[in-house]
Amino acid sequence: MARDRPVYESYLHPVYGVIGFVGELFLWGAAGGGAFHFARGLRAAPSGARLAGAVRAACANAPSVAGTFGAYCAAFSAV
């Protein structure tokens, strides 16, 4: 009879799971913040430069939203 593979999951250090979780939430914050600030910049820019204003607003504000989401996730995981 051949040996079957064990059913349990392999051991993964908890720190690696936390780092992956923080990274995932950082990416979600970057995507959501980029979309939100793009739409906000598109609406607030003058009529001749709407696309440039939208891109500028997204590039300026999305990293701070992503960092905030990552920090909240790290604090939540620490608790």
UniProtKB/TrEMBL annotation:
It is found in: Mitochondrion inner membrane. One of its GO terms (biological process) is protein import into mitochondrial matrix. It is a multi-pass membrane protein. Its main location: mitochondrion. GO terms for cellular component: TIM23 mitochondrial import inner membrane translocase complex. Keywords: Membrane, Mitochondrion, Mitochondrion inner membrane, Transmembrane, Transmembrane helix. The chain crosses the membrane at residues 15-39. GO terms for molecular function: protein transmembrane transporter activity. The keyword Transmembrane applies. Belongs to the Tim17/Tim22/Tim23 family. This is Uncharacterized protein.
